[in-house]
Design brief:
Layout (H helix, E strand, L loop, with lengths): L3 E2 L1 H7 L9 E2 H7 L5 H9 L3 E3 L2 E3 L5 E2 L5 E3 L2 E2 L7 E6 L28 E2 L8 E7 L2 H8 L7 E8 L4 H9 L1 E3 L2 E3 L3 E8 L4 E8 L6 H9 L3 E9 L2 E2 L8 E3 L2 H13 L3
Parallel strand pairs: 1-4, 10-16
Antiparallel strand pairs: 2-5, 3-4, 3-6, 6-7, 8-10, 8-18, 9-10, 11-15, 11-16, 12-13, 14-15, 16-17
Helix pairs in contact: 2-3
Pfam families: PseudoU_synth_2, S4
Enzyme class: isomerase
Family: Belongs to the pseudouridine synthase RsuA family.
Length: 263
């Protein structure tokens, strides 16, 4: 077993020498996408994290860029956090790889060298706004339903839902043993000749194929589905397949939005 430093001795002897450039160990692990900050804290207290070859169990420990951090024997990369918005086309997997050789979202950001991953997912046939980052803590914060970040979708339904059926979406119901609920739903337009409707639906959760499953349960399969907004972000100025980095104030807004809505 690797030797273990106490917190005071560790911070005195190890690190890059500049406290201003150092961060708490659990935050570094979370940013690397290894685990949420809470899970990172447990990994530390369980003695599964080493810094420069020494087991560290104190949660107050800080590390710098020159320190080698390993979690359960696996080194982590301490990249600078980056944040991107992608207009995901239909027919693309929300993953970093696919064993069937299908296109994945990271294929659209070939110039990005950091090890980014999508925050949540849009299913294969759904287009729209998806965020990518290498900041695991940021991703976990946005995905947690208790943080109530609005995700706005536009759905084209086969058939025209009634006002009562839209109320059912907001009231919530169980589908295949899983409770599904929308925050808001309204009809934007209808085409009685084609018997179709354009419906806006807002979610806080991101359960697997949630929007499609809810409409299927009501008897209105979807012809198209697109996520148009995520928190304060939208797709303005982008075409399918385009991406852009988030501006610092946009990252800050998302953090503030998620933090403000914590129950």
């Amino acid at each position: 077993m690797a030797p273990c430093y106490e917190k005071s001795k560790y911070n005195e002897k190890v690190g890059d020498g500049r406290m201003a450039d150092m961060e708490r160990l659990q935050k570094v692990i979370a940013h690397a996408g290894v685990a949420s900050r809470r899970k990172a804290e447990k990994l530390i207290t369980d003695g599964k994290v080493t810094v420069n070859g020494k087991v560290v169990t104190e949660l107050g420990t800080k590390v710098g860029k020159n320190d080698d951090v390993e979690v359960e024997g696996v080194p982590i990369d301490k990249e600078e956090p980056v944040y991107y918005l992608l207009y995901k086309p239909r027919g693309v997997i929300s993953s970093v790889s696919d064993d069937k050789g299908r296109k994945v979202v990271t294929d659209y950001l070939p110039e990005v060298k950091e090890r980014i991953f999508p925050i949540g997912r849009l299913d294969y046939d759904t287009s729209g706004l998806i965020l990518l980052t290498n900041d695991g803590e940021f991703a976990n914060m946005l995905m947690h339903p208790s943080h109530e970040v609005d995700k706005v979708y536009i759905a084209k339904t086969k058939g025209i839902p009634s006002p009562e059926q839209l109320k059912q979406l907001k009231k919530g119901f169980t589908v295949e043993g899983e409770y599904l609920k929308a925050v808001h739903a309204k009809i934007n337009s209808t085409d009685t000749r084609k018997n179709t409707a354009i419906v806006q639906i807002v979610l806080h959760e991101g359960k697997n194929r949630q929007v499609r499953r809810m409409f299927d349960a009501l008897g209105f399969p979807l012809d198209k589905l697109k996520r148009e907004r995520y928190g304060s972000l939208d797709l303005h100025g982008l075409n399918a397949g385009d991406y852009r980095p988030l501006k610092p104030f946009e990252v800050k807004q998302l953090r503030q939005l998620a933090g403000k809505n914590v129950k």
